[in-house]
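Sequence only, no structure available. Ideas?
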Amino acid sequence: MIKRSLRQIAEMADALNDITPFAERLITGVSIDSRKIEKGNLFVPFKGEHADGHQYVASAIEKGAAAAFWQKDVPNPPLHLPIILVEDCLVALQELARKYRKQLQVRVVGITGSNGKTTTKDMTASLLSLKYKVQKTGGNFNNHIGLPLTVLSLEEDTEIAVLEMGMSGRGEIAFLTNLACPDAVVITNIGESHLLDLGSREGIAEAKLEILQGLKDGGLAVLHGDEPLLMERIHRHKGNVQVQTFGRRESNDLYPIDITQLDKGTRFTINASSEVFELPILGTHNILNALAAMLIARYFEIPFETINEGLHTIKLTNMRMELVEGRHGEKIINDAYNASPTSMMAAIELVSNLKGYERKILVLGDMLELGPEEEQYHLKVGEAMDQEKIDYLFTYGKLGNHIAEGARKFLGEHQVFAFLDKTELLQKLMHYVNDKTLVLVKASRGMKLEEIVKALQADTP
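Reply:
I predicted one. Tokens follow.
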């Protein structure tokens, strides 16, 4: 993490006040939460809708913070304390991160995409760790606040940082990539997430391609080569960029030849190596994420022969194709962190093709931020059901009702249950699970369907 004197921090953040009395204090790390202050931290207060972090500055310093930012338009700054007066706390945080990034020798991999970016980040970090000291974005710290905090958490001797870049509108990826200055970037795919803000998949593609703006000259862009919206646009972007592609088609630089679904993962071979790879993660779609990570690993001179070791030690962020067991012995695929039509279809395909279960149940909730066509997208997900491969469907939420509507065209009325109440859903679901059951739980994060998973795992009803 960043370790600089208060004088250096003040210079990097464009301080407006004289900090001479505290100039030699050592700042170690940055926190935006006064409840989680560690000794030596720089505390950065933000003005929120319901609270103003400035009111916690004094207590943060009492708890061990070495200094704190103070925004110029907030009255009564406690200048007797080690305060760095700045024009805007968020801008100062971002500028501090930008300048710290430039001072480091670290190489950066930037990852974005509509689906799979967090999983690809985890895979990429695991593969690169075979040879380098690697740090990666923690949790969902992938926005205009989280990414600067991640950069400021980097150790001086970190060799590669794998940074996830999220967005909700145009210009956000451009800002993040220009701060991070990546040596290589990945765009996992173009899906339907953020249609509400960007209006079309074409608009989403343009927003994701902003990641190239910060890519170093001659750097590598790894793209989903089966996506025409990316391939049509990549060459419009100026600059000396290497392009490598992954996908299912043989026209890609890297593509799978043979895929075998295992009980707790996937075995596959690729066109560029005789090695047989095993991925301890469910889902054919995750092989594509692995291919993207493998292209990055090869760029950083990690041979295919050692990649299996990195695949075996992947640590995924929670609630992404996580296989757990319920209290009745049922197997549960917890994929409750996020959902889009593309990822929902992939998850349904996975469950449909898994063998060894007498009963397969889908618990699906609303997919959010899909814009004016949201009802139609949910209806199409329901229409993807195969009566021979899916036994029961439980839906949750108003939009989930449209999944149920579509499914009733292919499943019987006795196989489809729609709920607006999570407790009622759970009570009904409990009658259908046993030790020979597979349950998929998936929805957008805002639906909090992990509560269903936790309830199925609970020791007592």
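The longest helix spans residues 89-103.
Hope that gets you unstuck.
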